[in-house]
Design a protein that fits this description.
By secondary structure, this protein is an alpha+beta fold. The chain folds into two domains: 120 residues, 2-Layer Sandwich (D-amino Acid Aminotransferase, Chain A, domain 1), CATH 3.30.470.10; 148 residues, D-amino Acid Aminotransferase, subunit A, domain 2 (D-amino Acid Aminotransferase, Chain A, domain 2). Helix content is 26%, strand content 28%. The protein contains seven helices and 15 strands. Strands 7, 8, 9, 10, 11, 12, 13, 14 and 15 form a nine-stranded mixed β-sheet that branches. A six-stranded antiparallel β-sheet has the order 2-1-6-5-3-4. Helix 4 links the parallel strand 7 and strand 8. It binds N-(5'-phosphopyridoxyl)-D-alanine. The site of N-(5'-phosphopyridoxyl)-D-alanine (PDD) has 15 residues, from helix 5 and strand 13.
């Protein structure tokens, strides 16, 4: 039986209930995190908890727990789900919404306790760290139609959901987004990297993209191995003409992309730089 955490208690996931007057439900007024774990060891935990705190701060929601308390909650949730989730790769979803009030009004209500919800779920196995065996992604591209504060990991995900759905309809695994200057922002649920004329490039952190924890671990891991990543604007034309394209996220780690809009990236094979990147990532992912 899957066990969830809701407002201070552990209970069967299927019994968890919140009010329809919760502002998370009415306004998408909340923050979420997905913390990946491998054999119960979290990856990037400090970064995930810092980003959760930053997001709550940006929305003016009080963070109801300290980093230590979140860590204890995650460990407890994994323990309580250990029979249900025998999978090696488990994601922990955490959501904090502004809370419940019996009147629908846009303005923030005063002094209401946030709603805290968490559950654990099995995720796909990490990519095989072998360029001849890993399953590559095929993606489409679209102009980014989301809001102007994509650095906040808000539960208002409709923009992302609508973009992702277009890739699903096209029979692909993701959609890479670009702004009105034809600069890449990110994908609907991943960050983007490309190898352009031998240089690893990823769009810089600003309001247009989520500061991905996996993105950060990839940059730091490569740097430890003496390989630099350029954080600079990346154009759609550069992406399409790149030697390699990768997507990063907590559930996908570093996923190679070999087709963009039905055209091969370089020769359509997974590249040698991806191989280096996944090896660096695997070397340091529990330390960073
Ligand atoms: N998605 N960009 C967006 C829009 C995302 O939703 C995500 C994560 C990322 C990658 O961030 P990280 O490396 O911290 O997972 C980038 C999560 C996994 C999700 O919504 O399920």
């Amino acid at each position: 039986m899957a066990v969830a955490f809701l407002n201070g208690e552990f209970l069967p996931l299927e019994k968890a209930r919140i009010s329809p007057m919760d502002r998370g439900f009415l306004f998408g007024d909340g923050i979420y995190e997905v913390v990946p774990t491998l054999a119960t060891r979290p990856v990037g935990l400090r970064g995930h908890l810092e980003r959760l705190d930053n997001g709550l701060c940006a929305l003016g929601i009080h963070n109801p727990k300290s980093a230590d308390q979140w860590e204890t909650l995650i460990a407890e949730l994994l323990r309580k789900n250990s029979e249900e989730l025998v999978s090696h790769s488990v994601g922990v979803y955490i959501q904090v919404s502004r809370g419940t009030v019996m009147q629908r009004a846009h303005g923030f209500p005063d002094n209401i306790p946030p709603t805290v919800f968490a559950f654990a779920f099995a995720t796909a196995a990490p990519p095989l760290p072998d360029r001849s065996k890993v399953t590559p992604f095929s993606v489409i591209t679209e102009q980014d139609r989301r809001w102007q504060r994509c650095n906040i990991k808000s539960t208002s995900l409709l923009g992302n959901v609508l973009h992702f759905q277009q890739s699903k309809i096209a029979g692909k695994q993701e959609v890479i987004l670009y702004n009105d200057k034809e600069q890449i922002t990110e994908a609907s649920a991943c960050n983007v990297f490309a190898v352009v004329q031998g240089h690893i490039v990823t769009p810089p952190l600003d309001h247009q993209i989520l500061p991905g924890i996996t993105r950060d671990i990839v940059i730091k891991s490569l740097s430890r191995d003496g390989i630099a990543v350029e954080e600079r604007p990346l154009t759609l034309a550069e992406l399409k003409g790149a030697d390699e394209v990768w997507l990063t996220s907590s559930s996908k780690e570093v996923a190679p992309v070999t087709y963009v809009d039905d055209k091969p990236i370089a020769n359509g094979e997974v590249g040698a730089v991806w191989q280096q990147a996944i090896e660096s990532f695997n070397r340091y992912k529990f330390d960073l």
